[in-house]
Structure formats: C-alpha cells, structure tokens
Amino acid sequence: xxxxxxxxxxxxxxxxxxxxxxxxEAGAALDLDPDTVAEDLARIVLGxxxxxxxxxxxxxxxxxxAGSLTPQEEERLGLTLMRAEEAIAAQARAFxxxxxxxxxxxxxxxxxx
Length: 113
Prior knowledge:
By secondary structure, this protein is an all-alpha fold. Helix content is 60%, strand content 0%. It starts with 11 loop residues before the first helix and ends in a 19-residue tail after the last helix.
C-alpha cells in the first residue's frame, strides 16, 4: 500500500472559487430586483446556458481540429450548436434581453461571455 502524495496547497482555481463564493455570500454576484425578478433570473439562466454553449462550441472545434469526429458527427454537432444558439437568443428576446445582457459578472473570474 502506497502513501498518498501530500496536497500541494490551494490551487489558483480554489482561490478563485473561494473569492466567487465570498462575492455571492455578500450578495454582489446576484443583483435581483423584486419588481423584475423573472427577467433577472432569466438573464442569469440564459447567460449560463450561453456560456455552456460557447464552451461546447470550443470543445467541438478542438475535436474537429484533432480529427476525432466523422463528417457526419461534425455536421450533427454544428447543427445542434446552431439550433442551441437560436433557441437561447429566442428565449432572451422573449424576456426583452439583448445578447450583451447575457454576460454575467463572476467577480474575480471575469465575465462569462
């Protein structure tokens, strides 16, 4: 049985996560107004969805450049990402939000999009 390697201490990710949690606990990360809570929540949810869609798009580009996708998979993935972008934009319009309003401020982590 081998001993586990000692933990090297907090990583930069741990420090950023801790700062983000402190920011949320202080109420700075979620700026909700009782009169516009539905729109505010929609902005947060749609912002996260757009952020995740962009991450998936970057991963798809990496996979295409690495040659790990068949032409059919590339076509299907491209179509899926385009439709996801359209659906997010449609929902944003339904709440009267513009694409730039979907960018979320994560404090020390920066803006999402």
